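hiii so um. not sure if this is the right channel but i have a protein structure encoded as tokens and i wanna go backwards to a sequence. like what aa goes where. can anyone help
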């Protein structure tokens, strides 16, 4: 029987697993579940006998992909697919997909919550500031960026965006101001919300040159990937600009250096939680299962990322 492995070191909510199971079994396939594994070798072993794989931030390395003797498709239930070795998948003729948009609202809500948390002194009872009338820069206008922009307008923020891959008119239709360069975005906005993927071009691209352009009272919110920020620049900015704040959904490698020194100006969630809602798990998990069923039954390659 065709087997679909759901391998999640950080499991989906039980209600999402039920939905994934229903989708898979109704299609006549079998669900294999590997949750909360701590050793990457467990994934290498589990993938050996399956036809399809659903993952979250789990690493689909070359070793995992090569171990999948019958593997035809990998779906990352979520947005970022920097955890899949796309070259290894392509070399083996394996289709890789993501599920764009399915968990975006959860991430967008967290980004807004993080802005409020920093503006209100980490909820420690001190006098803070409001988001209303402040300028927010959305760095990359994909699914999450668009949703953050929409919620931020409800807060009365003035929203700006930079994304060279999205037509100006598409962004402007949402009532968002388009700037012509990334430098302009950072020099204009007191708040920046990062939504760029992690790839060879973007890693460490948020550097001192860029962030030091931000106006007084600058706050960067990172619900994207820890790799996009240059950590030396982050440390320099925190040291040189007492007005600067950084909040992240993924701890940078230098977390231990920052947490004690910059209390109130630096915060990181203990574990990535942008997509940790039952709604996001249901949406992304079931979408992943449906995409696999459609691919295996009808050859549907919508959302393939290794074309
Ligand atoms: C994504 O890329 O979709 C988010 O970073 C969520 O990742 P997660 O499923 O591991 O929480």
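sure thing!! here u go:
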């Amino acid at each position: 029987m065709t087997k679909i492995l759901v391998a999640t070191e950080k499991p989906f909510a039980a209600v999402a697993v039920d939905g994934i199971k229903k989708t898979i079994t109704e299609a006549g396939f079998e669900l294999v579940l590997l949750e909360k594994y701590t050793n990457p070798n467990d994934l290498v072993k589990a993938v050996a006998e399956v036809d399809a794989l659903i993952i979250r931030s789990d690493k689909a390395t070359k070793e995992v992909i090569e171990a999948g003797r019958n593997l035809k498709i990998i779906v990352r239930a979520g947005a970022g697919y920097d955890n899949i070795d796309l070259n290894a998948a392509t070399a083996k003729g394996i289709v890789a997909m993501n599920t764009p948009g399915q968990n975006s609202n959860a991430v967008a809500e967290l980004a807004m919550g993080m802005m409020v948390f920093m503006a209100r002194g980490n909820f420690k009872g001190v006098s803070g500031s409001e988001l209303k009338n402040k300028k927010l820069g959305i760095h990359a206008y994909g699914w999450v960026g668009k949703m953050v922009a929409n919620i931020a307008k409800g807060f009365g923020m003035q929203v700006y965006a930079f994304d060279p891959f999205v037509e100006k008119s598409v962004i402007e239709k949402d009532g968002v101001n388009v700037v012509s360069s990334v430098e302009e975005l950072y020099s204009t906005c007191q708040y920046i919300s990062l939504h760029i993927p992690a790839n060879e071009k973007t890693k460490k691209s948020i550097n001192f040159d860029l962030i030091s352009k931000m106006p007084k009272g600058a706050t960067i919110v990172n619900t994207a990937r820890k790799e996009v920020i240059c950590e030396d620049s982050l440390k320099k900015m925190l040291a040189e600009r007492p007005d600067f704040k950084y909040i992240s959904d993924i701890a940078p490698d230098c977390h231990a250096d920052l947490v004690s020194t910059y209390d109130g100006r630096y915060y990181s969630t203990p574990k990535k939680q942008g997509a940790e809602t039952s709604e996001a798990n249901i949406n992304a998990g079931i979408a992943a299962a449906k995409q696999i069923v459609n691919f295996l039954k009808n050859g549907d390659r919508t959302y393939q990322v290794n074309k």
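oh and Residues 10, 56-57, 78-80, 103, 272, 274-275 surround 3-phosphoglyceric acid (CB under 6 Å).
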